[in-house]
Specification:
two-stranded antiparallel sheet; 6 strands; about 140 residues; single chain; about 55% helix; alpha+beta
Length: about 140
């Protein structure tokens, strides 16, 4: 869940009831949050599978060998239905008040080397990519 810096039309029940500029701002913010979260998920998946994080190229190469969780994919569909959410690339999001709630499936490792520190790894990867996106903006 991410708090937005923008005030959206509080009467709008869904993204479709927002004016065009509000909808565009929401979509851009959700895309950035999901991109950051996706990098964190890849970092955690690679760390579980290998016990190492040796730079971005290593993460991207090793993440491409991992499978997305089928259960997580099912939960994305349930999330979209339950919260009137929107699919965006691999994940989904919805707006509740001034919060963007995002969801992505995890990456699966057939033989994890470690599970210790996966939450920290996910958080750090998400934070790092979020900072990079803010600098690029």
């Amino acid at each position: 869940m991410f708090k937005t810096d923008c005030e959206f039309n509080s009467r709008a029940v869904s993204e479709f009831e927002m004016d065009e500029s509000e909808s565009s701002i929401l979509q851009r913010a959700a895309r950035e949050k999901l991109e950051a979260l996706e990098f964190g998920v890849r970092c955690a998946g690679v760390y579980a599978a290998s016990g190492r994080l040796e730079g971005r190229e290593f993460v991207e190469e090793e993440a491409s060998k991992l499978q997305e969780s089928p259960f997580g994919r099912e939960q994305i569909a349930a999330f979209v239905k339950a919260f009137n959410g929107n699919i965006l690339e691999q994940g989904a999001y919805t707006l509740k008040g001034n919060y963007i709630i995002c969801m992505l499936p995890t990456m699966l490792s057939r033989s994890p080397v470690t599970t210790v520190g996966l939450g920290d790894t996910l958080t750090a990867g998400t934070f790092l990519r979020g900072l990079e996106l803010n600098v690029q903006a």
